[in-house]
Amino acid sequence: NNIPDDLFSAIALLKEELNAVILAHYYQEGDIQDIADYIGDSLGLSQQAANTSADVILFAGVHFMAETAKILNPDKLVLLPDLEAGCSLADSCPPDAFAQFKAQHPDHIVISYINCTAEIKALSDIICTSSNAVSIVNQIPPEQKIIFAPDKNLGRYVSEQTGRDLVLWDGSCIVHETFSEKRIVELKVQNPDAQILAHPECETPVLRHADYIGSTTALLKYSQGSECDKFIIATEPGIIHQMQKQAPHKVFIPAPSTSNCNCNECPYMRLNTLEKVYLALKNKTPEIIIPEPTRSKALKPIQRMLEMSK
Ligand code: 13P
Ligand code: SF4
Questions:
Q1: In which residues is [4Fe-4S] cluster bound (predicted)?
Q2: Whose CA is nearest to atom 2 of ligand 2?
Q3: CATH homologous superfamily of domain 7-85+269-289?
Q4: Mean pLDDT across the chain, nearest whole number?
Q5: Pairwise CA distance, residues 6 & 271, whole Å
């Protein structure tokens, strides 16, 4: 496998040959965002996947995102540059244990955050993302009991916003739970003119200090629309590439983790590289495959989400 010097041109050529589209999440490295046809949050990416006319989808994100694209497009080739690009939240919810949990709450419907495997989606009634979770829960009749899985932090936030009691699965994201409340407050003291923007996957002590809470797309929009020109960003720092690109004069400071590591970078998202994107298109592998009936069972709650998000 010879790697060309100009990966940007080589990828553009392969895309044309294959009639491929590149969908990238904001947590991908800057170069990947720059070659993508569409960059978005989980909801935006699934809406794009539902509407694409491409024959091949190269998903620059993590496994559950590429799976969602495949569930929506069983006849298209869906490629993920690195199959090891998983997610701690998806891993925190094994299907067998979740099926037992569900059986213990027979009068509940299941709303699952999109950050879960196809098997968990197949056990769910409705899927949500961080941008529509509050609105989706608000659309459910108040007497209907709800299990919310797998992210307990997002679940707690949605429960507070909607005033609903949710039965929560005990999962969390290794990136968002690593932010240090103490160090964020210290940073704010040094930068009193900065606003704190946080993703709802963060823990409550961090969210308490946030000036604005939202999905990656919502955080990006807020940072562009706000009159403030300095922000502390409590989510994966890949998003800062777009924030900075769209507002070069503004200052974006990544929120610190509890230790001096790069723990706020998602190790799964970072497995994808421009070179792997090129190789995936060239070799038409690694491909996402989802067996039936899991795929068709998982499709229904995704379609419900898309309908409820119009
Ligand atoms: P959103 O892009 O929907 O905000 O989700 C963030 C995330 O953790 C994706 O893995
Ligand atoms: Fe999963 Fe967290 Fe990485 Fe998102 S940032 S893919 S939730 S581990």
A1: 87, 173, 266
A2: 173
A3: NadA-like (3.40.50.10800)
A4: 97
A5: 20
| Atom of ligand 2 at shortest range from CA of 267 | 3
**In 100-170, where do the E strands start and end?**
108-113, 126-128, 145-149, 166-168
Looking at the CA of residue 64, tell me the nearest atom of ligand 2: 6
Q: Any idea where the domains of the chain sit in the sequence?
A: 7-85+269-289, 89-172+296-308, 176-254
Tokens 């010097």 belong to residue? 5
Sign of CA dihedral 60, 174, 124, 158: negative
Q: Whose CA is nearest to atom 1 of ligand 1?
A: 41
CA 75 to chain centre: 24
CA–CA separation, 299 vs 293, rounded Å? 10
* CATH code of the region 176-254: 3.40.50.10800
Domains 7-85+269-289 and 176-254 in one fold: yes
pLDDT digits (tens, 9 = 90+) for 91-141: 999 999 999 999 999 999 999 999 999 999 999 999 999 999 999 999 999
Q: Identify the residues whose C-beta falls under 6 Å from ligand 2.
A: 62, 87-89, 115, 173-175, 236, 266, 268-269
* Interatomic CA distance for residues 220 and 239, integer angstroms: 8
**What is the CA(198)–ligand 2 centre distance, in A?**
14
CA of 216 to the centre of ligand 1 (A): 6
pLDDT digits (tens, 9 = 90+) for 280-305: 999 999 999 999 999 999 999 999 99
Q: Is 41 in the pocket of ligand 1 (CB under 6 A)?
A: yes
Other Cβ atoms closer than 10 A to 227: 5
What pLDDT score does 140 carry?
98
Average pLDDT over residues 34-38: 98
The CATH architecture annotation of domain 89-172+296-308 reads 3-Layer(aba) Sandwich (3.40)
Q: Are 133 and 154 in contact (CB under 8 A)?
A: yes
